[in-house]
Amino acid sequence: MQRKTFDMLVSAGGLVVVAVLIVAGSLCAWGSSYISGQVHNQLAAQEIFFPPASAFAHAKVGTEITPSMIPSVSQYAGQQLTTGAQAGAYADHFIAVHLSEMPFGGVYAKASAAALANPKSVADAATVAVIFKGTTLRGLLLNAYAFGTMGQLAGDAALAAFLLAGIMLLLVLAGLLHYRRVPATLELGVVPSEFANRTPVSV
């Protein structure tokens, strides 16, 4: 096989890879945009807001804001909940904390079992209702967090695909340049005469 033919085949294959990477990157970018948009719109419609910054200045165990919330929740103080990252922080470091402070540790299954065992207890029924609402909201927010993370990963994959496509395109251009410089009669695996007659340089 002639070296020119080999270079052209490799370059053509490289162009195919570039096209595949661009298509994959475009699909990932679209997926990231779509997921992020859906997460934002669905969360914004709920009109959930983080407590104001002033609330975090008086964090205390047993109140709305506990000291454990400051590292993770205070960064979103006063903001509307619209992103997956915010949803994860609100679910795991705000709702979960308050649930854990409730009877039965905020576990719905335990509270429900206690209420069923004592069906006339208004307090147990109220506790079950509150825990159910909190657990449900936390689960929905964690779903939003999961989808938001997927959107972010899709965006990262799109960036990686475009970077690889750029690198591959440079390699293809280098291959085409080599194609133009190789003699038409040179066979694959044969060293050109201008290199074959050179004396090796000793180190």
Give me the secondary-structure topology:
Blueprint: H1 3-44, H2 53-56, H3 70-73, H4 84-100, H5 108-117, H6 122-181, H7 193-196
Helix pairs in contact: 1-6, 4-6, 5-6
How many domains comprise the coordinates? 1
Poorly predicted sequence stretches spanning 5 or more consecutive residues: none
The major β-sheet equals: none
Number of contiguous helices: 7
**Which secondary-structure class do the elements indicate?**
mainly alpha
Whole-number mean pLDDT: 87
Q: Taking Cα atoms only, what radius of gyration do you get, to the nearest Å?
A: 31 Å
- Number of distinct beta strands: 0
Strand content: under 5%
Shape, principal axes of CA atoms: elongated
Proportion of residues in helical segments: 55-70%
What report would you give on this structure?
The relative contact order is 0.17. The chain is an all-alpha fold and 203 residues long. It has one domain. The model has no long low-confidence stretch (mean pLDDT 87). Helix content is 69%, strand content 0%. The two termini are 35 Å apart.
Core attributes:
203 residues, 0% strand
Short summary of the structure?
The chain is mostly helical. The chain has one domain (3-190). The chain has seven helices and no strands.
